[in-house]
Specification:
The protein is an alpha+beta fold and 68 residues long. The protein has one helix and three strands.
Length: 68
Amino acid sequence: MTTPIVNLEGSELSYRFYGGRAGQKIGILIDGEPWIAKYPRSGRDLRGKHVPSYTSSPVAEWLGSHIS
């Protein structure tokens, strides 16, 4: 099953707030349902360091939420 890519630009805000350090998150509404739009953190400050990039965090979280 393929998940469609959705353009979230101009989505209505839900005014729910989410914390965390892996990137900016905003609450939006899609068809009246609250969702989280998560944007990857810049990897600019990680250059030259031996740590995994956080720019793939949204992908890793999506994959983790689909493993059963």
